[in-house]
Structure prediction request, 545 residues.
Amino acid sequence: MSTASNQEARSRGKAPAGERVADWADGRLGIYSLAKANMRKIFPDHWSFMLGEVCLYSFIIIILTGVYLTLFFHPSMNEVEYHGSYVPLQGQLMSEAFSSTLHISFDVRGGLLVRQIHHWAALIFLAGMFVHMMRVFFTGAFRKPREINWLFGFLLFVLGMFTGFTGYSLPDDLLSGTGVRFMEGAILSVPIVGTYLSFFLFGGEFPGHDFVARFYSVHILLLPGIMLGLVVGHLILVFYHKHTQFAGPGKTEKNVVGMPLLPVYMAKAGGFFFLVFGVIAAIAAVAQINPIWAIGPYRADQVSTGAQPDWYMGFAEGLIRFMPGWEINLWGHTLVLGVFIPLVAFPLVLAAIAVYPFIESWITGDKSEHHILDRPRNAPTRTAFGVAWITIYMITLVGGGNDLWATHLHLSINAVTWFVRIFFFAGPVIAFLVTKRICLGLQRRDREKVLHGRETGIIKRLPHGEFIEVHEPLSQEQLHTLTAHHQYEPAEVGPTVDENGVERKVKGSEKLRAKLSDAYYGEDAQIPKPTVEEYKEITSGHGHH
Ligand code: HEM
Ligand code: HEM
Prediction:
């Protein structure tokens, strides 16, 4: 039918309706040239590239469900008497925030499901970001030209943590109130300005009457607004830089091998969005989360046992829980080091990962662009640092739940705390050494495979009685993949005399760089990959040995 009307339109000298609309829009927005340049953009295929999409889709789900929640949530700390349909709390005094969250859970159509989807999506969003960040880290995708995008991502991770924190504090229940109290304690530990900051934030003595309303605007507007801007910037940069790819035949630093954005990638991405939404909705439908009616409204004089923050805040909690309760009393003032040191350590643990790309590029002195990803084993020192960092993070996470580990595993809480204290320092060192060894072992195996082929497990007996195992040579593709990586030479301290033959002072930073470079690329830090000559010498003449 449309073909018939199109022909009719043409015969009257007019373009078909669709074309006219397209023309109209193109004349005003220039979308034709924009679309032409971008719609055929190529995206490489690898499962780990879906992690960024998980972040994106869970973020969209959070915004959609968050908007629904704002329709019914009352961000007020005014005290009200509860008369909703949850019978056990009938007649109880509570804040409007708490009572409206009960209302969402029990009286609003789909309210409980949407609340649970919002909360589960937040947990998955942060987990997605964590794993996505690690994929980018371990494959070296943060290298030039993507350092800025790494920082954008890092900011998203940190802002995501705080958006989650402000979000789960909104219902004003006993658990989240305990978390806010924890934050108040941390702020109070700041020397000189701590008390002022706390009074400013809470509008007076904790808990005051203001924090839910304040957290609300921060939670639904300020932080998500900044995050949305960063996500758009992040994706524009992914588009602009083009995606990285793993080494393989036909893949170079100058091309991208994969599928075009339209129609293939769009179709896949669209399907994947519904898959992520479906999985989160299914989890939210069957797994209860944050049952505030069982926890009860917040009262500053109460705290329940087993109180835990959401997982992404657990490491901050852990830093405080395993720290000895040191205090210094000076001129009538108390400096609570037991809280203040963790407060300073908190950004440091995070910043270590933020600045890493800049440290690595300083050590390598490499100014070239990198679009081919590293296999983690081929960058043993970086991989080892990454695993050491995850170890610190996980150990502090254990510290954050020391009471739960103790009760669930029937251990003494002091034993768990001491375990965390010791392994906060020892864990990353052990993880670093073990990871580096494993990477070097894997590099040796790759070298072995390139030079001697794959062990087939087929044993042959030669006429003179000797047993040999048949090795199957690798295909050209496999050989390429295993030998494509670049191996750096360790940087050395430059000439110690200047052009006039006068001895110059070697700067401390130069020495440090040479030392670090040796740790990264010295003899103990990488196994030389096979050279063409070695390969030819071994493979010429006999197919197996
Ligand atoms: C709201 C959170 C985030 C969203 C929606 C997001 C989304 C994405 C998407 C869709 C991609 C392309 C596909 C992929 O490589 O997975 C990507 C790539 C990238 N992301 Fe993220 N990301 C987020 C957080 C982060 C974080 C926390 C980091 C690191 C700290 C990060 C660093 C990067 C980098 C460096 C790339 C380029 C990787 C490459 O081309 O190989 N992102 N991001
Ligand atoms: C990265 C972004 C976000 C994260 C991580 C996040 C996380 C959370 C979490 C964990 C809760 C507690 C839910 C519960 O009751 O168990 C919450 C509550 C809430 N969020 Fe968000 N949220 C985000 C963005 C938004 C946005 C954009 C909106 C609105 C446009 C929103 C609106 C709300 C409202 C109204 C509540 C209180 C109602 C309730 O607790 O059920 N959130 N948020």
Observations:
- The pocket of protoporphyrin IX containing FE (ligand 2) is lined by residues 62-63, 66-67, 69-70, 73, 101, 104, 115, 118-119, 122, 125, 160, 163-164, 167-168, 170-171, 219-220, 224, 227, 290 (CB under 6 Å).
